[in-house]
Amino acid sequence: MKNLTFKMLFSNLFSGRKEKERTNRFASEFTVEDPSTYDFLWTIKSLSKFVENDEGMLVSGIFESKGYSWKLVMYPNGNIVNGQISLYLMLVNASSRPSMAMFKVSYELFLFDQNTGGTLSKKGENLGQVHDEMGFRNMIDLKTFKDSSNGYFMKDSCMFSVKILQFVLVQTPTECVHPMELVSHEYSWKIENFSKLDKKSSHDKKFTTGDYLW
Q1: What is the rounded CA–CA span in Å between residue 31 and residue 29?
Q2: pLDDT in tens, 144-186
Q3: What PROSITE patterns would the database entry show (predicted)?
Q4: Interval 126-152 mean pLDDT
Q5: Which of 120, 152, 123 is nearest to 135 (CA)?
Q6: What is the pLDDT of residues 67-84, one digit of tens each?
Q7: What is the model's pLDDT at position 72?
Q8: What is the mean pLDDT of residues 16-44?
Q9: CB distance 133 to 107 below 8 Å
Q10: How far apart are CA 118 and CA 6, in angstroms?
Q11: Among the listed ranges 1-10, 47-56, 129-138, 204-213, which one has the minimum average pLDDT value?
Q12: Cα–Cα distance between 155 and 148 in angstroms, integer?
């Protein structure tokens, strides 16, 4: 009876070790089953080193979607409010449009569970301009993020992704207003031999005042 109990205990311990090793191996070799589902996959390795080096904001490389260039922006300890992961989408290039052009974008941001292959996702819609950060200040709180049983932060690495659902340029008239500057200036122009001037030609003399040429 004692031998049977010992064998069962040993078997359970061995099975538990194998399951742990399988989970860790899966986490270290995590790949997305269907990458084409997303517009961009962003893996951050050695995240703790970025935090130790006081990297308050991490920015991804550029990716293309809907004919425009984008980046992801991640705050590992929260944007404005600490204790959370902040994740944003940013339009970085719209060369065919004025830099002040407005647009509306619908998107979905994802954080992968490396244990199961599932995701935590949030959808958003924003009106913005180039270089505006659009997304979620509280994508997930740090306590939940760092809990290894959730699979979001494994072996000091994590993976985010994005799907841009719709992008529409907003044709809004724009106007720039600035206060008028009162300038007091007198300019005298003495014309020599006025009667001898060629009447078929124009004559002028330039001067500058108030940072303008007159």
Answers
A1: 6
A2: 999 999 999 999 999 999 999 999 988 655 566 667 666 666 7
A3: MATH (PS50144)
A4: 95
A5: 123
A6: 899 999 999 999 988 999
A7: 98
A8: 67
A9: no
A10: 38
A11: 1-10
A12: 9
C-alpha distances (whole Å) from 102 to each of 69, 77, 194, 201, 208 are 15, 30, 56, 49, 37
Q: Which residue has the tokens 């970085």?
A: 92
Q: Which two tokens stand for residue 173?
A: 């008239």
114 and 22 in contact (C-beta within 8 Å)?
A: no
Residue 14, both tokens: 């061995």
SS3 call for 111: strand
If you count them, how many residues does the chain have? 214
Question: What is the C-alpha to C-alpha distance for residues 25 and 93, in angstroms, rounded to an integer?
Answer: 39
Q: How far apart are CA 158 and CA 153, in angstroms?
A: 5
C-alpha span between 133 and 144 (Å, rounded): 24
The contacts of residue 141 (CB under 8 Å, 6+ apart) are 83, 84, 85
**Token pair 């992961």 in the structure block, residue:** 85
At position 205, the amino acid (one-letter code) is K
pLDDT at site 142 = 96
- Residue type at 168 in one-letter notation: V
Q: How many CB atoms lie within 10 A of CB 149?
A: 7
Strands of the 102-112 sheet, one edge to the other: 40-45, 157-170, 102-112, 119-128
Of residues 191, 186, 192, 174, the one with CA closest to residue 210: 186
Question: 31-170: which CATH topology?
Answer: 2.60.210
